[in-house]
Specification:
By secondary structure, this protein is mainly alpha-helical. It has 7 helices and 2 strands. A two-stranded parallel ribbon has the order 1-2. Strand 1, helix 6 and strand 2 form a beta-alpha-beta unit.
């Protein structure tokens, strides 16, 4: 579901030296602005880099670029905090990531520890898995919904 339009806690933005960003929804500091693919690129540029998108950040990080690695670390911390809040509020049995970054395989090995870092002792991190239908799963769901008879 839609969950990207609540604010990143100010202490996390401050910890990482990130600005409070305006969001297209009309709010400020929305999670989506920081943990999306464009958010990863923004973080890397904020650190002094020049990556134009998340793919470039990942390529730079894999080549050993310190800024790009730091951007991915910050992204993982912000996403970990957001998912931890969902775990505590909703107790999901599984978390399915969406969007372009859901195709970044190392995220699935590293993200559980980032979620756990924001949970109290004893809280369990549910499995975090890629979407079954790739990063276009949301579009597939919308298309299937359009094929359903409307409710009157």
């Amino acid at each position: 579901g839609e969950w990207g339009h609540w604010s990143v806690p100010g202490h996390l933005l401050q910890r990482h030296g990130l600005p409070l960003l305006d969001c297209g929804c009309g709010l400020q500091g929305c999670v989506e602005r920081y943990v999306s693919g464009s958010g990863v690129a923004m973080i890397e540029r904020h650190l002094g880099g020049s990556a134009r998108d998340a793919s470039a950040v990942i390529t730079l990080a894999e080549a050993g670029d310190v800024r790009a690695r730091q951007a991915l670390d910050i992204h993982r911390d912000l996403l970990g905090h957001s998912l931890a809040a969902l775990v505590l509020a909703l107790d999901p049995h599984v978390i399915v990531l969406g969007g372009g970054l859901s195709q970044y395989a190392p995220l699935y090995q590293l993200l559980p520890a980032a979620v756990a870092a924001h949970l109290f002792n004893g809280a369990q991190v549910p499995p975090i898995v890629p979407p079954r239908f790739g990063d276009a799963g949301g579009a597939r769901g919308a298309a299937l919904l359009a094929c359903q008879p409307s409710f009157s």
